[in-house]
Amino acid sequence: MTFDRAGDALWRISNKAWTLLQLMERYVNAAIVQRARLDEDHRLFQELIGRRQLPTRLEVAEHMARGFADVHFFIICGDKIHGLSEHIVSIEHDRAIRTVWRKKRVKLDAFRVSRDVLEHMDERIAKRGEPNSGGFLMNGVMYSIGDQTIDVGPSALSVLTSAYAELCDAAAALPIRPEEKAASEAGGPSITSAPITITPQRPQMI
Questions:
Q1: Contacts for 152-159 with beta carbons within 8 Å, 24 or more apart?
Q2: pTM confidence score
Q3: pLDDT digit string (tens) for 88-120?
């Protein structure tokens, strides 16, 4: 189940921090979608190797590519959630928000390390070579690449969802900002309630 929690913090944290929280929610929801795709990747691979006819090299290559793409974006989502959390904490000085960051930081750091492993494999191969550089999704929860094993299972997703949920809880518990409260009591428009209009752009031919 995806999240729709950012609105709970509206008017309680700065506009900048709230916009970052909205973006963080998108990456959390994307990570949830990716985790489901990884389960599907594993199911399809089990079907592939479980049939009577041996899989072709092309079928195996397609599975490897799909698994790599889904793992990679899942890790990217985790790394972006790490960075967005860091930005929010640098803007908001509330103790509860900072407590969430201190509690979750070490586990979130793992996504940054994992992204580095994936995106700098070429450099390690060029310098000293790496075994199994293609990567392999094991049991749908662990991804092996080179000499590294990356957790992409439900526990990894739980790190992301719990960090986001606790940040939302901490932000939603804050009082409404004075300028917002004053605008509301005066009967005027809220500073952050102005509608945002997005004008569709005609696609450009390249």
A1: 152/35, 152/38, 152/71, 152/74, 152/75, 154/35, 156/74, 156/78, 156/110, 156/111, 157/31, 157/32, 157/35, 159/78, 159/104, 159/107, 159/108, 159/110, 159/111
A2: 0.83
A3: 999 999 999 999 999 999 999 999 999 998 888
